[in-house]
Design goal:
Blueprint lengths: L1 E5 L6 H10 L5 E4 L10 H11 L2 E2 L3 H6 L10 H13 L2 H8 L14 E3 L14 H10 L4 E3 L7 E5 L4 E4 L10 E6 L5 E5 L13 E7 L4 E7 L3 H10 L5 H8 L2
Parallel strand pairs: 1-2, 2-3, 4-5, 5-9
Antiparallel strand pairs: 1-10, 6-7, 6-9, 8-11, 10-11
Helix pairs in contact: 7-8
Bound molecules: zinc ion.
């Protein structure tokens, strides 16, 4: 089975469409949350996400926008964007956000995998460093966890003694590229496909991944998208300017 992993789209329609245009063949789409927040096309991105189906995990921005989480936990820019998004969304899309499941989520045909937004221990935890990854890696019932939330593409692994991290190396800064990562049977992993709509690893290109469950290979992907258009829409919506400029920096 081939699983298309998308996360942290953040209402960036241009980035989502660019990913889907180059995504290799797959059997199921897993959306790791933060579908909305920050970008200027929340209704369109929700419509596209619903169309793609099939498996979803809610993110903190999804919760904040539909009122399941207090905006006081957000920085001022994120809170402003969440309020703007709430005002834009159709009642049906708001209701749909409210119905998204909390991670970890599993797929019956894919034993040993689990899907979360932040961490298997807490849906809102940030797993940024190997140190952050120790506990979830060791205590998780599933040997392989796919997660998002940090907007950093890569993987953490452990054999319960040594901990390591992997970040895909790419050759260019502006072209569509892939980087294969082979999982080993005796190790435990936390894998982040990166953020579709607001990467923060210094690479502006939209990020996603595909997991081949037969061969245990994660293919990390980066794809350029129409950045200018996404930025122009953010500015035209009177969202904070920083939300447009940061897209170019990938920060
Ligand atoms: Zn996010």
């Amino acid at each position: 089975m081939r699983v298309l992993l998308i996360s942290d789209i953040h209402s960036n329609l241009e980035a989502l469409e660019a990913c889907l245009a180059v995504a290799p063949a797959h059997d199921v789409v897993v959306n790791l949350g933060d579908i909305v927040g920050y970008g200027a096309n929340p209704n369109e991105v929700i419509a596209r996400s619903r169309e793609l189906g099939q498996v979803f995990v809610r993110g903190n921005h999804d919760k904040a926008v539909c009122g399941l989480m207090d905006l006081k936990d957000f920085n001022p820019v994120a809170a402003l964007a969440a309020e703007w998004t709430r005002n834009q969304l159709t009642p049906d899309n708001l209701e749909w956000l409210r119905s998204l499941p909390q991670g970890p989520v599993q797929i019956s045909e894919l034993a040993g995998l689990q899907f979360v937004h932040g961490s298997p221990l807490d849906e809102d935890d940030y797993v940024v460093t190997v140190r952050d990854a120790v506990e979830p890696l060791v205590v998780s019932s599933a040997p392989v966890t796919f997660f998002g939330h940090t907007h950093l593409q890569g993987s953490f692994e452990t054999n319960k003694v040594l901990l390591e991290s992997f970040h895909p190396a790419y050759k260019t800064v502006g072209q569509s590229e892939v980087s294969d990562f082979q999982l080993k049977d005796d190790l435990r992993y936390m894998v982040n496909p990166g953020s579709v709509g607001q990467p923060r690893d210094g690479d502006w290109r939209a990020a996603f991944a595909v997991f081949d469950s037969e061969n245990h290979i994660v293919t990390f992907c980066r794809v350029p998208y129409n950045l200018k258009s996404a930025q122009d829409r953010i500015l035209a919506a009177n969202l904070p300017q920083r939300l447009a400029t940061r897209l170019a920096a990938g920060r």
